[in-house]
């Protein structure tokens, strides 16, 4: 494993081994692995978990200082980050819990800086390589938890028998393993050396096994989408532009056919994935939140202030749905509840600019990184439709989205 992620001898600016280890540790903590289930088994916010992050923030600042020149050259990526932090901080003026908003805005800003660091320092295939190694390690830890400590690694009440690994629940395991699968697919597509190939194949095997054990439907679809895009881009590169044109037309036809099938047979399609028409109660939650957000349509209830225990919005949602809802399970709706249409518009613009940059640089940066940016962008946007992952503090999917934004906005010739 050590040799698999060692910095290249041909690139003096490649991340050092200690940088890779530090970045991997921070990503593992952002995923919520191990510490949360041990110190806060009921998923409540505890002082112990808060104490973990100040040292991590110091490590982030140390990493940024070590790469000061590279970070200065990454100034285009700081513009959208600054705009989002300013909006979130300003929401403290009308937030239901200004102290919570201010604390979490700090976390949003610092993890955003870490994301820019990833995009600026881990160039080309270096980021997928580090992600592959990190998620392979987390996958192995999860398999140990499942087979050696099943009381910890396997669900026993709800979702009994399904794997959760070193996380709270199966969907977290599935999401992280999907990240590993996408990164490993990109590492293979980039066609580097044999060490990278062995690392990628090991990660594909471990992450696939853990993903199947979790039985997370959303994660499985994300993995198929991300991995499929990597494979498609690789085939287009090998077969030539004619194949690319045919593939795009086929994808368009498949999309139109899929939309028609969904409009006519949505109930049957959901049943194939073990879902009811309400998406396990999600549609009831969405209707209730939509009515609640109409009271503050433009600016929302404040960053990270909507779902606080015993808050007015949460109590109203609980009254409407009949149970204590933890989140909207829909990224854009959660964003609208917290920051209103202003937040939705800002994040939508960031996503649009990032998407354009990824497509423009697909034949350059995209080829060198094994098309990781395109694959994770597509998977992330799909995830945002079913989970609250937009503009989140201390959140792995959002951090990696910001990292891909940074690496695609930073000029290639940055020092």
TrEMBL record:
GO terms for cellular component: membrane. Residues 203-346 form the O-antigen ligase-related domain. Pfam families: Wzy_C. InterPro entries: O-antigen_ligase-rel_domated, WaaL-like. Keywords: Membrane, Transmembrane, Transmembrane helix. It comes from the Bacteria. The chain crosses the membrane at residues 21-39, 51-68, 75-94, 106-126, 133-152, 172-190, 197-213, 219-236, 243-262, 339-359, 371-391. It is a multi-pass membrane protein. Its main location: membrane. The keyword RNA-binding does not apply. The keyword Disulfide bond does not apply. It is found in: Membrane. This is Polymerase. It comes from Brevundimonas diminuta (Pseudomonas diminuta).
């Amino acid at each position: 494993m050590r040799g698999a992620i060692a910095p290249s001898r041909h690139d003096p600016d490649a991340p050092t081994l200690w940088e890779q280890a530090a970045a991997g540790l921070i990503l593992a903590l952002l995923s919520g692995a191990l510490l949360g289930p041990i110190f806060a088994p009921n998923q409540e916010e505890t002082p112990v978990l808060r104490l973990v992050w100040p040292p991590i923030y110091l490590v982030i600042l140390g990493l940024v200082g070590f790469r000061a020149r590279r970070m200065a050259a990454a100034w285009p990526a700081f513009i959208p980050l600054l705009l989002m932090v300013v909006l979130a901080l300003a929401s403290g003026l009308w937030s239901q819990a200004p102290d919570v908003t201010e604390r979490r805005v700090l976390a949003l800003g610092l993890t955003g800086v870490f994301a820019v660091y990833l995009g600026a320092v881990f160039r080309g295939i270096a980021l997928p390589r580090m992600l592959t190694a990190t998620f392979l390690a987390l996958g192995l830890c999860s398999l140990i938890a499942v087979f050696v400590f099943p009381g910890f690694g396997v669900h026993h009440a709800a979702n009994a028998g399904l794997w959760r690994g070193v996380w709270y629940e199966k969907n977290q395991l599935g999401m992280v393993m999907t990240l590993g699968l996408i990164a490993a697919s990109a590492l293979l597509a980039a066609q580097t050396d044999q060490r990278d190939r062995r690392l990628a194949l090991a990660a594909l095997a471990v992450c696939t096994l853990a993903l199947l054990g979790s039985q997370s439907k959303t994660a499985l679809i994300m993995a198929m989408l991300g991995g499929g895009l990597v494979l498609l881009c690789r085939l287009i590169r090998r077969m030539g532009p004619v194949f690319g044109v045919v593939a795009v037309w086929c994808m368009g036809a498949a999309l139109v056919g899929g939309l028609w099938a969904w409009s006519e047979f949505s109930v049957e399609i959901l049943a194939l994935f073990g879902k009811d028409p309400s998406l396990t109660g999600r549609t009831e939650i969405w209707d209730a939140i939509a009515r609640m957000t109409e009271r503050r349509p433009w600016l929302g209830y404040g960053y990270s202030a909507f779902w606080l225990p015993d808050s007015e919005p949460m109590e109203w949602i609980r009254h409407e749905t009949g149970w204590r809802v933890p989140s909207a399970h829909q990224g854009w709706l959660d964003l609208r509840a917290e920051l209103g249409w202003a937040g939705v518009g800002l994040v939508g613009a960031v996503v649009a600019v990032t998407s354009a940059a990824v497509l423009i640089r697909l034949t350059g940066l995209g080829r060198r990184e094994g098309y990781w940016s395109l694959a994770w962008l597509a998977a992330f946007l799909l995830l945002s439709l079913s989970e609250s992952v937009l503009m989140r503090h201390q959140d792995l999917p959002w951090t990696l989205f910001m990292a891909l934004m940074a690496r695609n906005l930073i000029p290639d010739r940055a020092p």
